[in-house]
Amino acid sequence: MHFEIMDYELPTNFDVVVVGTGIIESIISAAASRIGKTVLHVDSNNFYGGLSSSFNLESFLKLNIEKRKSICMEHSSLNDTETFFPINNSDFTLDEVTHQWNITNKNKNYSDEENSAQEDIIAKEICAKKWLKDDLLKESRKFNIDLTPKVQYARGDFIELLISSNIARYSEYRSITRVLTWFNNTLEVVPCSRSDIFANNKISIIEKRILMKFFTSLDDNEDLIIKDYASKTYKCFLTDKKLSKNLIHYILYAISNSTDSTLCLEGIGNTKKFLKSLGRFGKTPFLYSMFGSGDLPQEFCRLSAVFGSVFALDQPIHGLILEENSFKSILIGKQKIKAKNFVLGLNLTPDFFLNKVKKKFISRGVFITNKSIMDSDNEPLTLLLYPAENDKNPCTVLELPWLSSCCPKDTYLVHISCNQINNPEDDLKHCVKNLFTLNEDFKAFKPLIFYSSYFSIPTNSDENVNLHDFNNLFICPGPDSELDFVTAVSKAKELFLKMYPDDEFLPRAPDPEEIKWDGDEEPSDIAQ
Amino acid sequence: MAKTYDYLFKLLLIGDSGVGKTCVLFRFSEDAFNTTFISTIGIDFKIRTIDLDGKKIKLQIWDTAGQERFRTITTAYYRGAMGIMLVYDITNEKSFENIKNWIRNIEENASADVEKMLLGNKCELEEKRQVSKERGEQLAIEYGIKFIETSAKASIRVEEAFFTLARDIKAKMEKKLEASNPPKGGHQLRASEPQRKPPSWLSRCTLL
C-alpha cells in the first residue's frame, strides 16, 4: 500500500504471535482469536497468503524479482540471559520462475500498419478470441493466479470447517463442472454421478452393473478388505474385483486420485471421500473458491480480525528471543513484542530448528489459453487428473473459465501441478504437449497458449523440524500437493489443541443479528 | 424460503481508525450510538432493509474489523462490493489526507464500477473542526463522487448518506442490467443447507 508513514506502533504484549499468513497460520490465528486470546498476526510480505496467495497478471509477472533481502539486526537490545534466533528470511522462495508470451503486441495478420487499427476491430468482431499481449495486460486485474491452486471436496474437512465456523459467509464457490482423465491418448469424462454412468457410451451395460456393485461393496466388506489387502495396492484390489481395464483407470487414477503404488485402504478411503461429496453442491464432488485459492487464508484472517487480532503486513521481522528455555518475545522493527506462544510458518522458521533434509518441490505451470481443453456448451470448470506416464508423475490440471472470476472473458486460466522430478518445464512437458498448441495457424481442436509460466513451489512438510522441547513454539508446514486443504485443517487443529487443549477449535461465530448491543453492557454472545 | 427483498447490496465502510465507521454503522442499522465499541470486536457486518421507489433493498454493510489500522485490509474484503463509504473525521486532518490513499487502495482491489461516497463524520464537533466543508466538497468533485457531512453521535444525515448511496447503486444497476456484470451465481455455503444423508449416491439410484 502507499501510505507514507506508519502511524502507529504495534502493541507489545500478546497471548499469541503468528508469523506468516499461509493457510495453516491463518486458521490457527482465527481459532485463537475466536476463543478470546489476544493475537498479533504479522507477515514479512506485503500481501496475504505467502505461497498460498493469488496474484493479478501484472504482479504475477513480477514474481521472480521479488526476493527479499535478508535483514541485519542489532543485538544491542538483548541482555545477557537472552538468546537470539534470527528468522530465516528466505521466506518467499519461489524458484526457477519463467514467463513466456506466445502472442505479441502486433497482430501478425495485418502487415499494413495504417489499416491495422480498423481491421483489428473487424477482426475482433469476427473472432472474439483474438488477443494481443497488451489486451491481456490491460485486463490484469481480472486475473487471480494461484501459486498453489486447491479444489475442495464438498464434504471434505475444509468445507465442513467453513460451514461449522460460519466462515463460509465470506466466500462464494463454484462447482467443478466435470472431472476428466487422460486415457488411450485422449481426454475422457470421468463418470461421477449415477446419471453420468448411464449416459456414458464408453462403458458397456455389464460394466455399468459391475461398477455400481463395486461402489456398494466398499461399504459392506470393510473388515475383509482390511484383513486381505492391508499391504496390497489398490490396483491389485481393483484387478481382483475383475473390473475391466477402463473401469480400473477411472477409479484408480481419477475417482481415487491414486497411483499404481497407492495402498488399498488409502485408495478405498479416497474413493469413499469422492462418492460422499457427490450431489451436495453440484455434479462433481469438487468446489473451487471464486477469485482464487488465495482468498481462503484471508477469510480466516478476517475472522481473526473480527474477534480482535491485530494484523500487520510488510513487517521487518528479525527473530525470536529465548530466555530460560522458552521464547519470550519477537523482534519486529525496533520493537520487542512479548507473547506466551509463537506460531511460525515453516519458511520463516529459524534455521536452528530445521534439519538439513533435502527440500521437495511442486512443479507448476500456469497457462492463459483461448478455449477449453474439451469443447462444451457452457463454460466449464474442469479438473483433469492426468495419470503417471513413463517416467513422469501424475499431474493435476485445473482449467478455469472467466466465471471463476480468475481470468477475463474469452480466456481460460490453466494450472498444472505435479510433484517435482527434474524441473517444472520438463516434468509437465508431455502433459502440455498433449493438451495445447503454440501454433496459431494450426487448425486443430487444441487450445492455443497465449502465455505460459513455470515455477517451483517448495513443499515443506514438518518432518524435518526439531523443536528441541521448546514448548511454546509451533511450526506450520508449507503448501502440500494434496488436491484440497484436508491436511492443512488437521495440522492447524493439532497445533491449536497443543496450545489450548481445553478449548474448542473454531466454534461457530455468531451472525451479526445474534450480537445484541444493549446500552453499555458487554455483548453477551462473543467469546469472553 | 421466499426472498424478503428485491435487491441485496453489499456496502463497505473504509477510512482511518477512529473516524467513526462503526458508529456510523450502528447509527444507521440500530439507530444507536455507543462510544464503548471503540474497537470493533465481533462485528462483521450489519443489515438493514430499506424501501426505495417501491423496492425492498437489503443493505449488508461491512466494517473493516480493525484491519485498517495497519493498512492490512484483505483483498477478499472488497469482493463483490457495490458501494463504498469513504469516511474521515472533520476534526482530524490526517484522516482527510488519507482518503486519497484509501481511494487508491479501492482502485487496486474493488470492482472498477463500485459506487463511492465521501463522508465527513463528527460534524457535531464544530469547535474542533480541522477540515472545512469546502475542502471535503472539493475532494469529492475531484473524484466525481458525492459528499456529505454526518454525525453519528447527533444523528445528522446518516440516513440520508446511505439512502443516497443505495439510490445511486440501484440506478446504475437498473441502467446496465444486461451489461457485463461480474459473474454471479457462485455457491454460498450455508449451514442451513438441507442435510441430506451423505452416502445417498446409491440410494438415489433407481434403475439398477
End-to-end separation of chain B:
35 Å
The CATH class of the largest domain in chain A is Alpha Beta
Task: Give the oligomeric state.
Answer: heterodimer
Q: Which structural class do you get from the secondary structure elements of chain B?
A: alpha/beta
Task: Could you tell me the CATH topology label of the largest domain in chain A.
Answer: FAD/NAD(P)-binding domain
- How far apart the termini of chain A lie comes to 34 Å
Shape call of chain A: globular
Number of strands of chain B: 6
Number of helices of chain B: 6
CATH architecture annotation of the largest domain in chain A = 3-Layer(bba) Sandwich
Query: Helix share of residues of chain B?
Result: 25-40%
Description:
The complex is a heterodimer of chains A (528) and B (208). In chain A, strands 1, 2, 4, 12, 13, 14, 15 and 21 form an 8-stranded mixed β-sheet that branches. Chain A has an 8-stranded mixed β-sheet with strand order 5-20-16-19-18-17-9-10, sandwiched between helices. In chain A, strands 7-11-8 form a 3-stranded antiparallel β-sheet, covered by helices on one side. Chain A folds into 3 domains: 13-93 and 293-357 and 462-514, FAD/NAD(P)-binding domain; 95-146 and 361-458, Guanine Nucleotide Dissociation Inhibitor, domain 2; 193-281, Guanine Nucleotide Dissociation Inhibitor, domain 1. Chain A is built from 14 helices and 21 strands. Chain A starts with 12 loop residues before the first strand and ends in a 29-residue tail after the last helix. The longest helix of chain A is centred in the middle third of the chain and has 16 residues, at 205-220. Mean pLDDT of chain A is 86; it is low at 1-5, 109-116, 118-128 and 519-528. In chain A, α1 runs parallel beside α12 (295-306), α1 (23-34) crosses α14 (486-499) and α9 (234-240) crosses α11 (264-276). Chain A has helices at residues 23-34, 57-61, 113-126, 133-138, 157-165, 194-199, 205-220, 222-229, 234-240, 245-255, 264-276, 295-306, 424-435, 486-499, and strands at residues 13-19, 39-42, 54-55, 82-86, 95-101, 145-146, 152-153, 173-175, 178-183, 186-189, 286-289, 310-312, 317-323, 326-332, 335-345, 360-369, 382-386, 395-400, 412-419, 449-459, 473-476. Chain A has 528 residues and is an alpha+beta fold. Chain B has 6 helices and 6 strands; from the N terminus they run βαβββααβαβαα. A 6-stranded mixed β-sheet of chain B has the order 2-3-1-4-5-6, sandwiched between helices. Chain B is globular and about 50 Å long. The two termini of chain B are 35 Å apart. At the A-B interface, α5, β8, α7, α12 and β12 of A face β2, α3 and α6 of B.
